[in-house]
Amino acid sequence: MQATADVTKKESSWSSWKGQAIDLLYWRNVKQSGAVFSSVLLLLFSLTQFSVVSVGAYLALAALSATISFRIYKSVLQAVQKTDEGHPFKAYLEMEIALSQDQISKYADKILLYSNTCMKELRRLFLVQDLVDSLKFAVLMWLLTYVGALFNGLTLLILAVVSMFTMPVVYEKHQAQIDQYVGLIRTQVNSVVGKSTK
């Protein structure tokens, strides 16, 4: 009975997390989506100008400045008002943040499964178990050389973040027109592929 309750709880938390991510990407709460979008873009643009170590150090200094300033402000406020509210971050200090052995085991198992699957697929592709799949992989790698020549990894990551936050909203607003054009493109591609295989 306990195992069923745990599974139901995990599925509920997963669907809740998934729903929150969808709400974030579809801009259901504009302030929250804007804050996440702008902070991620600021971080990525900072990484294009500074090293990861510098950005991490600056972020840590900013967080420490904010928390130390707030702690001093609350201490002064308590001294002036002669109240005894205690530490302003007491609730966060008492919060349990340790990972359980089950959580670590679950994530380690998933990482192991994905790693093994990836290694088997790469072995299959590089050792040409299926010639067609290996040729497709070679074409993909060849195309990626051109993408790599035009963009670096951070630029691609910035484009991915901007796309994640804009494409769902654009598609939601203009779904009929986009579906119509995608259908036309798909028809053209299918006709070209059909003619080339004959």
What does this structure look like?
The radius of gyration is 25 Å and the shape is elongated. It has helices at residues 2-25, 30-49, 52-81, 90-94, 101-126, 131-150, 153-173, 175-197. It is an all-alpha fold and 198 residues long. The chain has eight helices and no strands.
Write the layout of secondary structure elements.
Blueprint: H1 2-25, H2 30-49, H3 52-81, H4 90-94, H5 101-126, H6 131-150, H7 153-173, H8 175-197
Helix pairs in contact: 2-7
Entry summary:
It is built from 8 helices and no strands.
Structural class estimated from helices and strands: mainly alpha
The helix tally amounts to 8
Helical residue percent band:
over 70%
What is the first-to-last residue Cα distance?
60 Å
Number of strands: 0
Q: What Rg, in angstroms, do the CA atoms define? A: 25 Å
Q: So what's the overall shape?
A: elongated
Q: Helix-strand pattern, N to C?
A: HHHHHHHH
| Mean pLDDT level | 87
Residue runs with pLDDT of under 50 for 5 or more positions: none
Largest sheet: none
Strand fraction equals under 5%
Using brief descriptors, characterize the structure shown:
mainly alpha; 198 residues
